[in-house]
Amino acid sequence: MRSAKLSWIIPWCVLFFGWRVVESTLPPPPLPLPVSIGQDLEIVTYHIQSLVISRYAVTTVTCRIRNPALDPQEATFSILLPVNAFISNLTIEAGGRNYTSLVREKEEARRTYEKAKFRGQNTAIVHQKERETSRFRVDVSVSEQDEVIFYLTYEELLERRLGVYSHKINVHPGYPVLDMLVDVTIHETRDISVLSVEKVPGGDSFRNAVTEWREGGKTARLQYDPDRELMPKDGVIHGQLEVHYDVQRALDAGDIQIEDGYFVHFFAPIDLQFTPKHITFLIDTSQSMLGHKLVQVKDALRHILMDLNAGDTFNIIHFSSASYKLGTMRYTGTAVRKAKKFINNLHADGGTNINDGLRVALEQENNMGAEGVRPHIIIMLTDGQATVGITRSDNILKNVRERNKEGASIFCLGFGRGADMNLLERIAHQVV
Q1: 184 in the Ramachandran plot: left (φ > 0), alpha (ψ -120 to 50) or beta?
Q2: CB 3.0 to 4.6 Å from 206: which of 184, 195, 202, 245, for a disulfide?
Q3: Residue 395 near residue 358, CB atoms below 8 Å
Q4: Low-confidence residues of the chain, pLDDT below 50?
Q5: The model's pTM
Q6: 301 sits in which H/E element
Q7: Distance, CA of 225 to CA of 243 (rounded, Å)
């Protein structure tokens, strides 16, 4: 569904999105002009308008960049997107005209961009890294005493976490801004019970720049309109506008939204009975975890243990070249003290045997007797790639599928440049 929305825009620019790009088709000017990196560029208008309807957000960023110099200048239009958002439109306006694009291969698009840039032609290339899907960048060549306007629209379904929906809008213009405005409108089918602004661009000193008002019980409006006199001396302001909200709940089946043959069912029941669960913490203690990484992991484990519920069971397994486990324990004060002692004794050494760690986690006994088999949750944390034992990703994934007879949910957390994010994602989805 995402890829179907990416075939658009800009005949005179080059758009690189993942492995696909948009090629320039506008004829170049007859005389080549050099392009320099712009120091005098300014953003005349930087407006963000976000409309949330039934937890679905459509956000449009309008950025008008002006080059007052007598030579072409190169600028960067950069956006940090929410991880789960997808771009539904990108339009570039120059000379009073809007332009749309054709999709071309990456290298061909790069060559087209470089030729157009050398000639001094308005052109752009958009980058979005395959793994770093939240970063979107357009390198822009702006002709002398000219301006370019970008209209970027992205969409996302908001998620409810810790009792609220969180809507985050990143504001990072990168250049001095003459006119900045962020406008958020929220329409819901139920009365809005919670509405708060958790973060504002520029920090707490700019909280007075936020105006909030209601239009009935089901609609809320917020505007972030900073006073230019209070902005930094260089005119550059950045940060994040984070809005939290929730709607009134009842003991019913929730809300169903239907559109174009698809539906979304929203439900968040209240006063549910607690379900006992079994949690396995699977921790990488290989040599690469030495230092602050392992210290942070230990601190996190100690805090998580305090958040378990009476009736839960847990186990801690750490793996390096081999795997070692604490053993399944029912959540009690004595068990927590024993687990903390086990955590304190963890040290980093050896290689990374991911396959063996998963084997021990999946083969442990989860049935605690008369109460039946509990839902099993495995939380795995690693900073590297498999270097010991079975190291081929396909074989590790095959073993996970074969051993996971109980249907345990596996949550993988990878950090650092060395982590095999592709393998961790496939383990979490249990896709071979």
Answers
A1: beta
A2: 202
A3: no
A4: 1-38, 102-103, 129-133, 366-370
A5: 0.58
A6: helix 292-306
A7: 15
